[in-house]
Amino acid sequence: MFIFGRNAIKSITKNNHYNYLFLHFMWLFNSSIGRKFVMSLTGLALVLFLTFHASMNLVLIISESGYNWICEMLGANWYALVGTAGLAALVLIHFIYAFWLTIQNRAARGTDRYEETAKIWGVDWASKNMLVLGIVVVLGLLVHLYNFWFNMQLAELTEMETMFAPADGAGLVKYTFTGMLADGTMDGCWCHPVYCVVYLVWFVALWFHLTHGIWSALHTIGWSNLIWFKRIKTIGFIWATLVVLMFAAVVFYYLGVYFGACL
Amino acid sequence: MDQNINIKVKVWRQAGPKEQGHFETYELQNIFQGASFLEMIDILNEKLISEHKDPIAFDHDCREGICGMCSLYVNGHPHGPDQEITTCQLHMRKFHDGETITIEPWRSRAFPVIKDLMVDRSAYDKIMQAGGFVSVNTGGVPDANAIAIPKPVADEAMDAASCIGCGACAAACKNGSAMLFVSAKVSQLALLPQGKIEAARRAKAMVAKMDELGFGNCTNTGACAAECPKSVSLANIARLNREFICAKFKD
Amino acid sequence: MALQPQNGIITPEMAKIPQGPLEKKWTNYKDHQKLVNPANKRKLDIIVVGTGLAGASAAASLAEMGFNVLNFCIQDSPRRAHSIAAQGGINAAKNYQNDGDSIYRLYYDTIKGGDYRAREANVYRLAEVSNSIIDQCVAQGVPFAREYGGLLDNRSFGGAQVSRTFYAKGQTGQQLLLGAYSALSRQIGKGKVKMYTRYEMLDLVMIKDENGEDRARGIIARNLVTGRIERFFAHAVVIGTGGYGNTFFLSTNAMASNGSAAMQMYRHGAFFANPCYAQIHPTCIPKHGDFQSKLTLMSESLRNDGRIWVPKKLEDAKKLQAGTLKGRDIPEEDRDYYLERRYPAFGNLVPRDVASRAAKERCDKGFGVNNTGLAVFLDFSDAIKRLGKDVVAQKYGNLFQMYEKIVDENPYENPMMIFPAIHYTMGGIWVDYELQTSVKGLFCIGEANFSDHGANRLGASALMQGLADGYFVLPYTIQNYLADQISVPRMSTDLPEFAAAEKAVQDKIQKLMSIQGKRSVDSIHKELGLIMWDFVGMGRTAEGLKTAIKKIDEIKKEFWSNVFIPGKADSLNNELEKALRLADFIEIGRLMAVDALHREESCGGHFREEYQTPDGEALRQDDKFSYVGCWKYTGEDKEPELIKEPLDYEFTERKTRNYKA
Predict the structure, then answer these.
(1) Which of A59, B68, C16, C146 is the Cys-Cys partner for B166 at CB 3.0 to 4.6 Å?
(2) Rg (CA), chain A
(3) Which domains occur in chain A, in start order?
(4) Alpha-carbon distance A148 to A120, whole Å?
């Protein structure tokens, strides 16, 4: 790990203004709290995105046309593309840092492991398994991108031929989870209920990830003290649960539609 | 009521820092439950000595839970299966007849084993030497009552200051992080007006030393605070983060 | 030439007591002592052994001044020294409570509490610098308890009628030590102190100066991890290695606390003063079995709100001992609050020696309250009624928790059981006003010296003395010695004196290792401890002390012919460490008995049953024993020589200690 001495900083700053700026943010790479800070900020930004995404999804249950209006608004406009690129960057940074931190943390434990470990009261299961949960979340994300982003934003960009028009999000969602075509008939593929289950598993992993992630991120940023410690934990728990419930509501809704159609 | 119990003790034996370690199991009869855990090891060592074997090396000193010298990972817990105590305050009444007790040293890259259950915790001293102090010399200081400090602040500083530097936090942490230890000292001194003046400098120096010594990154699992014999609060870690991040942004 | 005792008497000149009125002595001294200029300080090395309150504060302060310091401790970190276990508090004459306190009153209480067996000038200086200690600690960030107004809180302690004790929960010693440790850490970080952890001093190295006079010039120490014997040079050596209470095996001292450094100084000609003055602390948790490794102390501060009692009726005591009755079930009228009864003025806050003897007296009469009959009650039911459980928990919660973990009984519901135990040794190496021993260049600070506590130490005074010595006394006085040493170059540790000292240590270790007998170190130590407790404990008699000396001589023989030390000498070897310490404990035990036998009076912690008033109080013999009893080493297995430092009280009238009215 590079530790930059004060003299090194001084000598560089004389010559190069950009390096100076760069060095000022080196702590985000070379200090443990800096790295955790990056994890927290990217994590929190993703939580905000998820919150927005989940509320948008909820519109689907209320009004399909409303949802499609949103899809059209976003589509492949420049701001949506910039947003998407930003999101991709956030996920990537969060992902890379997660592996980096985990490798360092495993090294810090040393070569000998404990023979016997006991459950420690007050330590959440999620907090010890954030990387695994994160990987599950990313795998789910890949499925999700294949299902939707591929058929919507990417299709619009490449003008690819798709089953549903890029802005007909509602139709695509309904088809993915139920197999119901635009004309109301079912394609009968077994894959649709499987998608529902896969998505629900994904959401469970996400819930675990968020129940630790939200409060932990706020804690790492330093927004906690003796009084707010419990409050932040509670807020994080409620927030995570709401977001995941909103996502799950859509899947359950279409599961209902699917079984209704099958019966 | 306390009774006599028979137990098996499975102990980590390691002849030196570079030697290969292994577990060895010993049987002990009629151990009184009113005895302390370390007294049980004393009895075992007396037995080993009478058999002309090498006694188990372990760190201990005050035996009243304040010096922080004793360590030991007992049945999967630093300082054993009881709350808010050090190993020397653990009593045999926490174990039952016929039980096998597993005793391991602290395991963390920054705490290498010296012999058997003894580890080198000088890394904690090095962190303190990097900045765990208020830079005042002896003499020439103002009257003790010159600066009033609100009682709740003084109390919170006292709670942070109660850390005994035993290393249980890093030993319990799956990431081998020393954040609870460092944050306790940073918090204590950042809370008090006497220490606030160099709070930013202190936080940066101590964190840099902590990172350099190979401790891991904190992921807020909370195992440290749950196993801390002095119940040092996890909230201190948030304060350390705050102090450090603010200091870095100010630079 | 240094002054030597004349006809076995240490004169005030040799003790270097400054002239002038009591309250001017220290100022006069500081005004006229020699100083070392900053450039020369860099050329001088000082060894400090020990990192307790005295050692750590001295090492830090000396390094801040510019000296090069080599600091040693036997633990893995300087923060673990046993000063850390002090709970209750630290005295200072701040008079923040407006209850009439003053430097003179603290001085007077301390000298009276010590049964008029301490040096007036030293005790006054201690009281004088006490206020600076509190200022210093607050500036370091020691989180003392505060009142809602933000100012410092105080509580009262035994032997005083004012509230002058500053405290940090029940962990005052810890916080003060961590303060000194932080100052020390700062100097280690700066490179001004070279810290040696897990090192044990095994001998002192003396080198003759140009006048042929011995001076302390270094130490031989063993690296406890590798077993290597190493040599260290310095221009002066400061010893702050604490007391020798572990001679008794069971004491409130830490497991590694020992008197070996003291014995090494003693063998090189430093006088051992008042070895028989050992303090028995009244509020310890009673012994629970033969396997017991140490005794746990509970703070004297508990006596602020707790009331001490035993049953009035012998049959109730019998039932308590049989376990058929609980303390809480005994009605108020059947309880004997014996301290309040005997000492109405001070009640439960009488000094430690008085409280301990009173407990022993009740238990000897058969009123003990546990299965061994060696315990009395410390009851908080009144305090809980008066203040509420929450307030009591706030003040004493950590002590109650500690008690419950050990005894497995809830002290909020049933009175706690306590019994006296060896806690502190007032005796120690003789030092002059400059804290220099009778060996040139060798200084002794903290509990290790014979100290300012006389025959008995008041609560919350040990922390005060340790820090006074380390922060505010030694850093001045040592300069008076070092000012003459600036032309002395650093010496090589290859000098024959170093080689000879190392060889002697190696030989001693070799001798111990080769005994290969049948007994473990601890088993012999326990035997010594029992003899000490039975004959050199709370009640001593001439006959008992003679028996003790005979038995200790037998133990010495047994030790040197039948001890077994496993392992090798040149590696980590706990048993060898313990054996080396026990060899010295045996000598100290004997010295304590010899001193106790010679001192035919009762004073403070030394109670000779032949010398008591009709109602069982200590009876001093001021006409015969108003002196510091110093013992000079005359050779292995030879009787030591007694040297006296008369204690002529110029400024204070000696009275019989009275805590009754």
Answers:
(1) B68
(2) 22
(3) 1-30 (no CATH), 32-107+122-262 (1.20.1300.10)
(4) 41
Q: In what order do the strands lie in the sheet with C428-429?
A: C428-429, C272-273, C627-632, C641-646
Between residues C2 and B33, which one has the greater pLDDT? B33
Reference A195, options A122, A258, A241; nearest CA is A258
Which CATH number is C22-277+426-482's, of 3.40.50.720, 3.30.540.10, 3.50.50.60, 3.40.50.11810? 3.50.50.60
Q: Where are the domains of chain B?
A: 4-114, 121-250
Q: Which residue has the tokens 């306190």?
A: C101
Task: Provide the residue type at C277 as one letter.
Answer: Y
C199-208 and C229-233 beta bridge pairing: unpaired
Cα dihedral A22, B190, C81, B223 sign: negative
Q: Which CATH architecture describes the domain B121-250?
A: Orthogonal Bundle (1.10)
Amino acid at B67: C
Could you give the CA distance from residue B113 to residue B14 in angstroms, rounded to a whole number? 8
Q: Does C143 touch chain B (CB under 8 A)?
A: yes
Residue labelled with tokens 């109301």:
A184
Quick count: other Cβ atoms within 10 Å of Cβ B197? Answer: 12
C and A make contact (3+ CB pairs below 8 Å): no
Taking Cα atoms as reference points, which of C588, C580, C574 lies closest to residue C510? C580
CATH code at C496-627:
1.20.58.100
Residue type, C207: I
pLDDT(A3) > 60: no
Q: Which residue of B has its CA nearest to A216?
A: B220
d(CA C72, CA C158): 34
Among the options C105, C307, C342, C352, which is catalytic?
A: C352
- Does the predicted interface ipTM exceed a cut of 0.90? yes
C:70-109 residues touching chain B, CB 8 A cutoff: 75-82, 84-85, 94, 96
C639-646: long-range pairs with CB below 8 Å, 24+: C639/C594, C640/C272, C640/C591, C640/C594, C641/C8, C642/C8, C642/C598, C643/C5, C643/C8, C643/C9, C643/C10, C643/C271, C644/C8, C644/C9, C644/C10, C645/C9, C645/C10, C645/C15, C645/C119, C645/C273, C645/C430, C646/C9, C646/C10
Residue C273 corresponds to which tokens in the numbers above? Answer: 């003063």
Cα–Cα distance between A93 and A88 in angstroms, integer? Answer: 9
- Provide the pLDDT for residue C650: 92
CA–CA separation, C188 and C39 (whole Å): 20
Q: Which of C61, C294, C476 to mutate to test the interface with B (most CBs of B within 10 A)?
A: C294
If phi over 0 gives left and psi between -120 and 50 gives alpha, with beta otherwise, what is residue B116?
A: left
Closest among C586, C589, C583 to C535, alpha carbons compared: C589
The 3-class SS string of C234-275 reads CCEEEECCCCCHHHHCCCCCCCCCCCHHHHHHHHCCCCEECC
Work out the percent of chain C whose per-residue pLDDT is above 70: 100
Architecture of the C281-420 domain: Alpha-Beta Complex (3.90)
pTM beyond cutoff 0.90: yes
List, for residues C205-221, the tens digit of each pLDDT value. Answer: 999 999 999 999 999 99
Contacts of B107 in chain A (CB under 8 A): 109-110, 112-114
A201 CB neighbour count, 10 Å cutoff: 13
Which single residue is written with the structure tokens 């943390």?
A: A105
Q: Where are the beta strands (DSSP E) in C512-634?
A: 627-632
Distances (CA, A) of C83 to B129, C295, C310: 20, 16, 32
DSSP 8-state code for residue C86: -
Question: C162 is written with which tokens?
Answer: 């004012």
CATH number of B4-114: 3.10.20.30
3 state SS of B10: strand
